[in-house]
Amino acid sequence: MSELMNVDKALELILAAMPDIGTENLSIAQLHGRVLSDDIIADVNLPPFPNSSMDGFAVRAADVITAATDHPVSLAVTQDIPAGQAPDKPVRSGEAARIMTGAPMPDGADAIIPVENTDAKWREGDPAPAHVQIYSTVQPGDYVRPGGESVAIGQTILKAGAVLRAADVGMLASLGRASVSVNRRPRVVVLGSGDELVEPGAVLAPGQIYDSNSYMLAALVEETGAVAVRLPTARDTLDSLRATFQQAVAEQPDMIISSAGVSVGAADFTRQVLAELGEVGFWRINLRPGKPLAFGKVQNIPFFGLPGNPVSAMVTYDVLVRPALLAMARQADDAQYITAIAGENIKSDGRRSYLRITLLQENGQWVAHTTGTQSSGALMSMVTADALMIVPEDVTHVEAGTPMRVKLLKTPT
Ligand code: AMP
Ligand code: MG
Asked: Which pTM was predicted?
C-alpha cells in the first residue's frame, strides 16, 4: 500500500499548478462583491471643493459676532448658490449668499448660518430675499465641509485583493471611475457520476438516492466567489462518463470538479476517461474524511476528482479546492480559526481529521462537541456543524478539555 500524502504537501502541489486567470474591466454597476486587481489611489479630493453642510447663508463670521434673536444682524443677500452651481462673486463684509447643502462656498465667506437661525423662509423655488436677519453667531468653519475632508489626492483608497462592498462601490463612483479592473472569477464545471443517482423531485426506485453533491459543490463554488456550471450526472458507463467529461471541456472552464468515481472499486471507468483526456493522478491523502482524490489536468484544465461521499466531498473541497480557487482568483483566504476545548474524549485514526462539531460558550471558553455520527456519508453532520475541529496527523486520542484548533463554518452564537 502506497504511503498517504501529507495534506499540506498536497495543497502545495495543487497551488503550484493553478494558472493565473487574469483580470477584466467591469463597469461601476457590476463591481459589487468583486475583487480589486490593483490598488486604487485618489486622483481627486473629496469633496472636490469646500461646500456647505446646511441650507442657509454663507457669511463672514466676523460680521455676525453680535447677532442674537433679540438683536439680529442684517446682511444684504448678493447671490444665490443652488447645488450644482459655482458662486459668481465673493462675499464682502455686510453681505451674505444664500446657499444650499453641498453647494460650493463663495470666496470671502468662512461660515454658514443655518436657515433656522435667520428670518428667511426656505421654500422650493422662492427667490432669495434682498436682505436676511441673522439671529446667531458662528465660528469660522461652522457648517463648512473643507475640500479633501473625506479623501485627499494621492491617498490609497482600497488595496488590491479587497472584496468590494457597497461603501467601496460608492467611493469608486465618487472618484469618477466608470470602470475598474477586477480579478476574473473562475468558471467551474461541476459534475458527478453514479447509476444510483437521480434528480431531486424524481420518484426513487429501490436502491436509488438523490444527487446532492453537484448542487452542494456548485453552492460551495459560488460561496468561494466563483461561477458554477452544473452538468447532468453521468451514468457508470465508459460512454456516459466520456461524454460528460467532453461536455465539461467544451464549456472551456477554468476548473472542472467531479465527485465520485475515485474510490478503489469505482475508479476504473473514471481512470480510463481521465487517462484519455488528460494527465490525472489518483492520490491517497492523509485526510479524514476524504482520503481518495484525483488531481491533475483534463485537456489542460485543472481538475479535481473528489470522493463521492458528501461529507468527504465537502471537506476535501474546503481543505484543497477552495484555496486553489482563491489562488486562481488572487483572493486572500479569509477562513476563520478559533481555539475550542474538546467537550468529550475523541478517538482519531492518525490521519489529519476534520470533525464536525457544534460550539457552545462555557465560562468564557468555546467548547466543542461532535455532531453525533461522523460517517462520511452523513451530510446532516455538516448541516448541524458550526465548525470543523482539526485533529492533527498521528493523534489517535484527544482528551476532553484539550484546546483544539477549529475552523469556523459559520459565526458561532
Ligand atoms: P463512489 O465514489 O461512486 O463509490 O461513491 C461513494 C459514495 O458516495 C456512494 O455511497 C455514493 O452513492 C455516494 N455518492 C456519489 N455521488 C453522489 C452524489 N452526487 N450525491 C450523493 N451521494 C453520492
Ligand atoms: Mg459511484
From this structure: 0.88
